[in-house]
């Protein structure tokens, strides 16, 4: 196992954030539309959601966390939409760099190198967050920071698996057949990984420099490959990743409910002033 190096005093350690946003989000596009239109433009993260692009909602939540030194968005080298689709008002610590790669790991690795150029050190913390988790709240992010900042490894937001889990089987030689249940898997002790995920910059760079990243699906799995056990920090079901077409309607409903609640609280506050 790669041991975590000794760390300096906590008051000299900074917290940075990286949002990989170099993908197209093809699963959000109905298959027939992909065939008809080819590669969609703009990418999923720029689709409108209640008056703003999806990624703008994501970035506002991160920008509301005062402890984050800089918020870096990793773009595809040919991205032409970020500057027109993202309103940076009220987000002075937001930066964007066109250093994205073909995979998530490559994009995050490019983002970490960009942070190094901005002065980030190996002992600093880095939060990596999915652009498509636009319902994350500053409270959830602050909970993750509070629980991870004194941990020796770091951790991630996650949700205990609520549903019964089935292992599928498909009849041999008939890949077109409908899948059937092979067995039921116990959900005890199983969690759904979310983001942000928070690790030391140097440790995460080491993890993402491993020669075989074929089994790496998130930053935590890369850290696990080094022999570490990331901390699981309880999250909320609303912090889901907008992945499929129907997810946009659900995300919009959640945002509308939050706006309505905020309006009621504001009205109540004014009445009691």
UniProtKB/TrEMBL annotation:
Top-rank taxon: Bacteria
Any one GO molecular function term: 2-C-methyl-D-erythritol 4-phosphate cytidylyltransferase activity
UniProt feature coiled coil, ranges: none
Keywords: Isoprene biosynthesis, Nucleotidyltransferase, Transferase
UniProt keyword Transferase present: yes
Catalytic activity: 2-C-methyl-D-erythritol 4-phosphate + CTP + H(+) = 4-CDP-2-C-methyl-D-erythritol + diphosphate
EC assignment: 2.7.7.60
Keyword Transcription: no
One GO term (biological process): isopentenyl diphosphate biosynthetic process, methylerythritol 4-phosphate pathway
Class in the EC hierarchy, top level: transferase
Pathway: Isoprenoid biosynthesis; isopentenyl diphosphate biosynthesis via DXP pathway; isopentenyl diphosphate from 1-deoxy-D-xylulose 5-phosphate: step 2/6
Marked site positions, Positions MEP for the nucleophilic attack: 187, 241
Role, per record: Catalyzes the formation of 4-diphosphocytidyl-2-C-methyl-D-erythritol from CTP and 2-C-methyl-D-erythritol 4-phosphate (MEP).
Family: Belongs to the IspD/TarI cytidylyltransferase family. IspD subfamily.
Descriptive protein name: 2-C-methyl-D-erythritol 4-phosphate cytidylyltransferase
Lineage, opening ranks: Bacteria, Pseudomonadati, Pseudomonadota, Betaproteobacteria, Burkholderiales
